[in-house]
Amino acid sequence: MSVLIKNEWLKLIKKKSSWIMWLILVAMTFGITLLVRSTTKSHNGEIMMKANDLFASLTEMTSFLNLFVVIVAASIVSEEFSRGTIKFLLIRPFSRSQILFSKFVVCLIYSVIGTVILYISSLVSANLLLNSQSPFDVVNGYHGWNALTVAGAHAGANLLLLLLYSTITLFISAAIRSQSLAVGVGLGVLFGSSIINSFLNVVIPKHQWLKWNPFNMLNIKNTIMENTGAENSYPAYLNFWQMAGGILVYSLIIYLVMQLLFKKRDVSLS
């Protein structure tokens, strides 16, 4: 199994696009920080923004990381069908479940490395371009946590989201074989969740069970900064661990259905 995962990883990492997306992530992190620097300068040229204030939120760049992971997850299966290599893959001494699992694991590895890259580039860019601070200083509004911990909490919460995004996108890619549709659905979940949540918030007060819908789980990063009594101010409130559990359950269900569909998939027409 490890051989299969290694092979899938090598196939992914040999693509120029895999490296380009990481480089774009770093370049955009520095670009956004530079933009923040220019917009927070006072009349006498003093930079008003402190490094930890931006680093703690990972420079608000997690959406771009999520976008790149969705693209990888959409292509990792659908390309096998579009290029006709799926038949050669299936004649190898591995089951379909193992093949799909290896691609799933590779997507998660790509997500983890991308998160580490974003974490480090946010820390470096913020301290180079803004008012530098020790990352061990406490960040206001985050339970007395230091900047390293707050940024780590955001990174961890976003990794849970990447697990769900990857699973959904792989499911579409494996079931329909369409890379463009898989990317479209992934982007729809990624950027359309706030719109859907705004509609659901209207009906959730009357139907409390709706707060367990998967789109509400996508608000997990908001729970990192929550204050005491937040459960009384938000009708769709779920705490961090409830949302984390919900994301894991939804990801597991989608993954199992994806495996079932992939096992029954007829590749003769590929």
UniProtKB/TrEMBL annotation:
It comes from the Bacteria. The keyword Transmembrane applies. Pfam families: ABC2_membrane_4. The keyword Chloroplast does not apply. The chain crosses the membrane at residues 20-38, 58-78, 99-124, 144-168, 180-204, 240-262. Keywords: Membrane, Transmembrane, Transmembrane helix. This is ABC-2 type transport system permease. It comes from Candidatus Enterococcus lemimoniae.
